[in-house]
Amino acid sequence: MAANRHSAGSEAEAEQPDYSLLTESGREALAVAEALFQEFNPQPGLLADLPQVTVDSASIDRVCQLAKDDPQLALKMLLCLSCVDYEEYFQLVYFLHSLDQERTLVIKANVPYDNPRLPSVAGVWAAAEWYEREARDLFGVEFDGNPDAAPLLLYEGFEGFPGRKEFPFYEYREF
Fold this sequence. Notes:
alpha/beta; Beta Polymerase, domain 2; 5-stranded mixed sheet; two-stranded parallel ribbon; 3 helices; 27% strand; disordered N terminus
């Protein structure tokens, strides 16, 4: 099983990531991120050939602010924020990029399925506001501090979260 894949129900331990897939710049970014985020207990890994760290969701706003402000990382661009439904929990995946360093770092945070809530990073990158609204519409993830509570993709009063694996598409009807 690859270390960058989720295996639902697997009791086997994950293999160690093959860090040789990283460029020298990627290995450096991962080392800097691990040291910089040390107080947040980062779990290093890979997402394909990109360096990644997984941190506690409650500290995602502080981790992202550090990633943006640190001159060694200088991750001033949020390329994408996505939500993955693993049925037992959601995983928020932040793709961050440094134009100065010409490299990308992935930061992940897991939130519980029954109470998906974490701090907003819209104060760090304005672009996060719409990504977070999309995750709220599709998955029901709440972002504390997001300045706009209006639905982005769905209409007011839409029931359910169509991004979730449990959403019954076959029962959906146009009004």
